Amino acid sequence: MIINIHAHLEDDQDVDQRVEHYRAPDMARVVLCGNNASVKQAFERYPDFVIGFAFVLLGKDRPEVVERFNEEGFRGLKMTTPAASYDSQEFYPFYDKAQRLGMPILFHTGFLRALTPLKVFWMHPLCLDTLARAFPELRMIGAHLGSPWFREACAAADHHRNVYFDLAGSQLRAMPLSFFKELFKYRSVGAPTDEPRGDRHRLFEESINMHLLGKFCFGSDTPAPEIMMEFHRDLHQALGVPKEVEERIWWRNAAEILGLEELL
Question: pLDDT by residue (tens digit) across 231-252?
């Protein structure tokens, strides 16, 4: 079983064709975001497959839209191109409402190709570290592993139980296996997940941090999901990811984030 936690439906795309675009073998659910009216049409038309995340414009919308989207049936929120840093306190009312309503947020993190006037640093993955401390019950997914701040994204995921990331994005698919073998060795001596070895140094340990890998979700972004499925399968095999961690990546993390009790 697979849950795709990051997919798009824009206003110039046919709803039915786009939903079929994201169907793939073993695909149980897809989270769509983009044009809110089209996404709403999709999850109303395909309630057993499509989950809608409403697009929120930080700096233009008012916090009250979170409650309105919740009433309309959206299960979460998508945020990108903010008017200030994600962790600016002016946006805290949005996060507070999302936390109270149990609506997870998918944040675009890192570089953005679109020629939009903004500071990419406003979407730095360590903004999620700040938010995880202020909103410990707000479930957050950082898209694209914070490219190019990959290690900082790993730190946020490894340290906070409510912070997850996906590996969607062409830049990550362009990286060699050696990059991932080095990146996923990241760990923090003395962290809660470090027991029972405590503060002992790790100079000679070259193993992959499976706790860290267990904080990822499958997301395809705009390409057909088969492209990212192949990437994940090859990566999991090359890193020796155990079945229980694969299960978390493919669907279990997403099911917990989305509150899909019927799948757990």
Answer: 999 999 999 999 999 999 999 9
104, 95, 79, 73: which is closest to 5 by C-alpha? Answer: 104
Q: Is 3 helix (H, G, I), strand (E, B) or coil?
A: strand
**For residues 143 and 127, what is the distance between their CA atoms, to the nearest angstrom?**
13
DSSP string spanning 155-192? HHHHH-TTEEEE--SHHHHTS-HHHHHHHTT---TTSG
The confidence score (pLDDT) of residue 199 equals 66
Secondary structure of residue 79 in the 3-state scheme = strand
Q: Top-level CATH class of 2-263?
A: alpha beta
Interatomic CA distance for residues 128 and 87, integer angstroms: 7
CA distances from residue 128 to 83, 102, 107, 110 in whole angstroms, order as listed? 16, 17, 9, 12
Whether residue 58 contacts residue 66, with contact meaning beta carbons closer than 8 Å, is answered with: no
Cα-trace Rg, the chain: 18
Q: What is the DSSP string of 92-109?
A: HHHHHHHHHHT--EEEE-
Nearest to 52 by CA among 99, 7, 14: 7
Residue 114: DSSP 8-state: S
Residue type, position 171, single letter: Q
Asked whether 82 and 121 are in contact (CB, 8 A), the reply is no
> Residue ranges per domain, the chain?
2-263
pLDDT tens digits, 79-131:
999 999 999 999 999 999 999 999 999 999 998 877 777 899 999 999 999 99
Q: Whole-structure pTM over 0.70, yes or no?
A: yes
